[in-house]
Amino acid sequence: MDDLLEGPFASAFCCGVINSLKTCRNITKFKIRWGVWIDMSKVHFITQGCSANQADSEIMQGHLKEKGHALVDNVDSADAVVFNTCTVKGPTVSAFKKKMSELKAQGKKVVLAGCIPQSGNLNGMGKDYSQIGTYQLDKINEVVEETVNGQVVVHLKRENKVRLSRVKTRS
User: Fold this and answer.
1) How far is CA 78 from CA 33, 45, 81, 107, 124, in A?
2) Using one digit for the tens of pLDDT, what is the confidence trace for 35-57?
3) Taking the model in full, what pTM does it have?
4) How many helices, marked H, and strands, marked E, lie in the chain?
5) DSSP string spanning 74-121?
6) φ and ψ at residue 2, rounded to 5 degrees
7) DSSP states of 41-77 as a string?
């Protein structure tokens, strides 16, 4: 069972109780999972490409919100950036490469999502980044949490999973 604490109480309680475990920052949410305190991450989404990418981002956002992570509107305040993009449209691939350079320069923790990692079309760019394919959207919580903790996680296995009735967040 998970318990979620939110707001100023969460920050004060977390700083007082687990400050010895890690550096306290402006925490808005954290969760007790299996008796362990987990700082809930702030996640920013960049979605480029087709309508399937838009729908996949909504599904991933829904999963993250359901577990207590915060969705933020700008890259600067994010603990992690989920970059969901498509390989089909040429301008999208060019924009992807440019944006990846910017995120790398900012030192952001990035999860690559969508068709580009699923297709293996990263040409060596993906080795330093977590990746989640179009068939593994339900694993986004694990991927984001591990990425924020400095791990590189790759979930690209192709599986037939039901996509209807998935949790979604509409912008």
Assistant:
1) 22, 9, 7, 11, 25
2) 555 568 999 999 987 888 899 99
3) 0.73
4) 5, 9
5) SGGG-SEEEEEE-SSSHHHHHHHHHHHHHHHHHT--EEEEEHHHHHTT
6) -105, 140
7) PEEEEEEESSHHHHHHHHHHHHHHHHTTPEE-SSGGG
